[in-house]
Amino acid sequence: xxxxxxxxxxxPLGPWIMRETAATLAGVVQKAAPxxxxxxxxxxxxxxxxxNPGTQTFPARKLEVADAAALAAFFGDPADAAHGYQHWLxxxxxxxxxxxxxxxxxxxxxxxxxxxxxxVGIETRKDLCGKGFGTSVTSAxxxxxxxxxxxxxxxxxxxxxxxxxxxxxxxxEE
Length: 174
Fold this sequence. Notes:
The protein is α/β, with parallel strands linked by helices and 174 residues long. The chain is 33% helix and 27% strand. The chain contains six helices and eight strands, in the order αβαβββααβββαβα. The chain is globular and about 50 Å long.
């Protein structure tokens, strides 16, 4: 009960959505805020055997520090904010799919072990959704990951039907 009171005091007044709250806490939050909608997350995985790379409609590649301005623009930041993205590009494994010089979709691998790579932040510009950018970037980063580990894993909200369809097309399974 104490947890519910603490949570309730800090909830916004209007309806809201949570996606990654632990199952044990979801009941507490819903008791405190009946208007909350909870979407379970699906864990999906591919292996070298199940991977179906398909056709890459748009060129996708590992992003370099020189791509910091394009990454800043992807997130709606001005070009002079590019320096803030350089650390991410230096230390991370970030892929991008391009429409000419414009970055259309990105994907990042945050855990890279010899057993599994975990993908996060797979995102497509809203104006380019449904055109193949997500497929291109997810396929490219998955292919690179599978050169280094036998499996690739990701988590997706159960209500993100477009992404789930894309991941299944590439061979990801729940």
